[in-house]
Amino acid sequence: MKKLVSTYTGILFSIAAVLFSIMAGGCASAASRPFAVTYVKSPLNIPSIIEKHLGLLEAEFGPLGYSVSHPEITSGAQQTQAMAAGSVQVANCVGGTSLLIAASQGLDIKIAGIYSRAPKTYMLLVKDPSIRNIEDLKGKKVAGPKGTVLHQLLLAGLSKAGVSPLDVGHIEMGIPEAVAALMSGSIDGALAAGPAALKAMENGARTLFDGEGLVEATILIGVSSDALKEIPDLPARMLKVHREALAYAEANSGEAAKVISEETGISPEQVAGMAKLYDFDPEIREQDIKELESTMRFLIEAELATNYVDPATLVVK
Question: Which of 23, 101, 173, 296 is the most exposed place for a label (fewest CB within 10 A)?
Fold first, then answer.
């Protein structure tokens, strides 16, 4: 994990705030307003896992009169739908594809910061030894979620190799289901990431290609405009908690790896290895905007979005 300049001193103050809140009358009074922040632990979402484990969001928003919940909504589309319904205030770890599709459909959603960048953790897995390169996918069946970073990865890989998407059958399927179908031999390739991909490779699957050089796999922290109106400094607070979680994980690597292992089902050693593939710096860089612009063009070309939205206009200033 990259060395962070931030420290976890703020965590101690945050935890103290929670203890004070409990002593003053309980962690969630009847008057507390609901505040839902989605919880997505895979592929290897270290900030979210540590935030929940330490109660950092409760420490940050509890003193403001909010009762924090962590709905486990892993689908980006379902996260944005919940936000549109008003049941979720923060999509904490939502794919750039999902957020941009929602914005193009009229959802008033904003980008608070970057959750992660991890191109090498998104991959297309195969088992058949006769599939040696992307060209060998012609006439084959590939399964994985559509309208996602993994979908974008597939199309980018095919395009780079000069293979038409029409020559490859793409079946809509969740990551665990796609991996299971690959291992059973009912499909030829699975779009996968995280622990599911790791376990598949331990059982004979291999990576045909990953996102390096194709997609940055930019994952975002999305906030609803309604929540932003209610809490104007919401983006700053979310990024503060994000950094606190990373600082704690760096300063307490052994304990953090154990907690993450228990949540994801992979070993602490595997956690340490996979963590090196992630960039969790939440600051929005110029390259991030360019990548999101590329994602928006992909969505238009793939007819997954009909209205172009300039990603830069969605960033909270």
Answer: 23
Print the SS3 string covering 229-298.
HHCCCHHHHHHHHHHHHHHHHHHCHHHHHHHHHHHHCCCHHHHHHHHCCCECCCCCCHHHHHHHHHHHHH
Rounded CA gap, 116 and 288, in Å? 10
Instruction: Quote helix, strand, coil % in the chain, to nearest 5.
Output: 50, 20, 30
Q: Which fold has domain 9-118+218-314?
A: D-Maltodextrin-Binding Protein; domain 2 (3.40.190)
Closest Cα to residue 48, out of 196, 211, 191, 249? Answer: 249
Strand order through the sheet with 189-193: 169-172, 141-144, 189-193, 122-126, 206-210
Q: List where CATH 3.40.190.10 sits in the chain.
A: 9-118+218-314, 120-210
The whole model's pTM is what?
0.84
pLDDT at 288: 96
Q: What does the CA dihedral 266, 253, 42, 74 come to, rounded to 10 degrees?
A: 140
Give me the count of residues in the chain. 317
Backbone angles phi, psi at 231, to 5 degrees: -125, 85
CA distances in angstroms from 240 to 57, 110, 135, listed in the order given: 10, 17, 45
* Packing angle of the helix pair 96-104, 286-301 (nearest 10 deg): 60
Q: What is the mean pLDDT of residues 274-288?
A: 95
For the structural domain made of 120-210, what CATH number should be given?
3.40.190.10
CA distance 261 to 274: 11
